[in-house]
Amino acid sequence: MRLVTTRYAADEGWAAPLPSDLDSDRTLVLAFAAPEFGVDATPFTQLAAAFPRAMIAGCSTSGEIAGTTVRDASVSVAVARFEHSDLRRAFTAISNAADSFEAGARLAAALAGPGLRAVFVLSDGLCVNGTRLVEGLHRHLPDAVVITGGLAGDGSRFERTWILDRAQPEANRICAIGFYGTQLCIGHGCEGGWSDFGPERRITRSSGNVLYELDGKPALALYKTYLGERAEGLPGTALLFPLSLRRAGQSGDSLVRTVLAVDETQQSLTFAGDMPEGAVARLMRANTDKLIGSAGNAARAAAVGVSALDDALVISVSCVGRRLVLGERTEEEVETVQDNAPGRSAHVGFYSYGEISPALRGGVSDLHNQTMTVTVFSEG
To answer: Model-level pTM?
Structure first.
């Protein structure tokens, strides 16, 4: 594998010349970009011209990760040319969250085939139920296929996200890259670092990813009582206080769920993933040191089995809520990932509206929020 990273800014252009000599049918180009590039496709047009044969994928973000830095108003790019592994790209449109499972099934059908080892997914961040999307992929792919990725971001605005369709940013899209080959090595790690507080409450009425009642009371009204003055900033301020979710009969770690939208009329909260009736929910809060430490744990887990002598593409997908909580310490999170990544690695990523990964302790992939997820690709 050969790896090059670079960055683009509208007022500076490219930080380094685009390595067009890496172009091939086995080349992956990832471009994580600030939302404003949805109306200025200049860097993507230049990427498409430099890499006409490559698989180009990307999305809008809530912050772009490159190495040990986090920036806004930029495009963070990784170019990875695999020597022994094949790539395939699939797209599908999605108009609303109810189509999420079928969207996953459509992507799985397009990517299924001999030698499939991993799928990296980038989805519109506002019109999807990430839980159902991942379920649709899992249901139609072999159990051994590792599914990771994330939901596109729009800062803390929650207005419009987009996915890169080669050189064109498009809303209401999902892109998935399939990785094929026996010499491909895939590592993954996932950890949150949040702490529960307050009483547990039962979800008594919900529909998919829309939560209506907790313990028989309107969910939005109850949530506002905890936020106090911060309730005026919803849905953005909800990122500071996510919910932990434990399904009925579930053992082990809870999932974390973040609010994407509120409905004052219905007194409901819309989340990035399912909020099943009967599950137990509890408010969460953060300690910055624990958040940063959890990022290191995720990176160490993802690096297991990857030789320090091999080049490795390291992709971090973290949550916009973590960035808001960490504030000026945000770069410590990505520095921790870099410090615990394989020695010969290129590190890119983005802050998202949802993270897709198997849990740190194994199992199938799921939709997470407020979580640092790390995926490592290398060739043995």
So the answer is: 0.89
Among residues 285, 320, 353, the one where a domain terminates is: 285
- Residue 79 makes CB contacts below 8 A (sequence gap 6+) with 3, 4, 5, 6, 18, 19, 22, 27, 28, 29, 51, 54
Which secondary-structure segment (H or E) carries 324? helix 320-326
> Which of these three, 263, 285, 307, is where a domain ends?
285
Number of domain units in the chain: 2
* Phi, psi angle pair for 169, to nearest 5°: -70, 130
Q: Are 177 and 85 contacting, i.e. CB atoms less than 8 angstroms apart?
A: no
Amino acid in the structure at residue 123 = S
Say whether both 345 and 210 belong to one domain. Answer: no
Long-range contacts of 92-99 (CB under 8 A, 24+ apart): 92/173, 92/174, 93/172, 93/173, 93/174, 94/123, 94/124, 94/127, 94/128, 94/172, 94/173, 94/174, 95/127, 95/172, 96/127, 97/127, 97/128, 97/129, 97/132, 97/208, 97/209, 98/129, 98/208
Task: State residue 10's pLDDT score.
Answer: 92
Strands 345-352 and 168-170: unpaired
11-21: per-residue pLDDT in tens?
Answer: 999 999 999 99
- β-sheet bridge partners, residue 267: none
Give residue 249's pLDDT band: very low, low, confident or very high (50, 70, 90): low
Place of tokens 């992929």: 137
Phi first, then psi: give them for residue 61, nearest 5 degrees. -135, 175
> What is the end-to-end Cα distance of the chain in Å, rounded?
10
Structural domain boundaries enclosing 144? 2-191+289-379
Same domain, yes or no, for 41 and 128? yes
For residues 95 and 217, state if they share a domain: no
297 and 182 within one domain: yes
Query: What span, in angstroms and rounded, lies between the C-alpha atoms of 141 and 298?
Result: 25
Same domain, 253 and 359: no
CA-to-CA distance for 352 and 142, rounded, in angstroms? 27
Same domain, 371 and 358: yes
DSSP H or E run through 356: strand 354-359
